[in-house]
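call fold(seq) -> tokens
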Amino acid sequence: MRFALLYGLLIWLPQNLAAQGQLAISEGTFFQSFDNVSLNIDDTELLTDGELIGTNSNIFISSNFAQTNLGGEGNNHFGRLYLYSPNGEFLLVNSIEINDLLELNKSSLNLGSADLIFPSEGGYLEGETNEFRVYSKNGGKIIKTTTLNKPQNVSPGNLGFIISSNENLGLTEIYRTHSSTTLPSGEGISKTFELYTDINPSSPLNISISYFDTEAKNMDYEPQIWMLENTGEWTHVRTSSERNSDTQSNRVSANISEPTLTYTVGPEKVYPVDISSIPTAFTPNGDGTNDTFLIPFIDEDFNGRVTIISRWGDVIYSSDNYYYAPWDGHYKGKLMPTATYYYVVSFGSDQRNEIKGNISIVR
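ret:
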């Protein structure tokens, strides 16, 4: 049985409906479908100033227009919404809720300043490609609410944010926004995620962010996950990355200890290397002056490794945490003798900027 309620009237609907032109639900009108009603809309704007409740509906909208408006000032709750517009895009003019599925079939959805909401009971996104995606330049975002109990490679809403944890995170909200962010390393991808968990885990969790080539701008260096700290500063975490050339997409992963932050992907920090600024000697005698081998351009965001090698070729020091633990001239707890040693500074996965030089211990 399928029906809609319009101005208090009971209207019987066939299994499949078709519309062309403009389908408008005026203010004060309540439209509700039950069971699996299918509504096919061709070259038509769907504007709702009343209420559209189609929690079990299948709505197919295809358009040849450059832009097709979707939504309205009323309440829109879709079950399954399928969009097709290979030569244009859909513009969301007001927030909508998808209870089951939003599928893009060669179509982009511009959120404008509206929100696309996937409730906790379900809702996910399918069909995003390098060419056709959900995006916004005016603040529109995707909101996904879900309950995560020890998730393992779970992608809530299929939004490009994947999460794993050995603990229950409880009710979790994920916000996906679509603006590029200026990072210490340059401009990030045009996608940012906010993660809010009901339960703060005591152990690190793993997150991955996926993005398409067109969502990144000239990212010449290895991508990193960057976090917006409560201080308002962006810092990066050590990451691994993989690329799918067939789909022109990328995935960057990292272990994090604080889940309720904002995350994005950007290039690793490029350091202006001035070899002449690197000291050639230091005096690790414990007097508090010049006791460590300091490399001036290495800061807390440094995503590389410093290695110290003896004249015999033995590695006596190696660290990817050099800013916080520079070499103090010791090896296995003993101060090394007065001599010349060799250092290698590698910048993350980018070996093009690897530098080498000599450092002497003097007394």
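Residues 275-361 form a domain with the Immunoglobulin-like fold (CATH 2.60.40).
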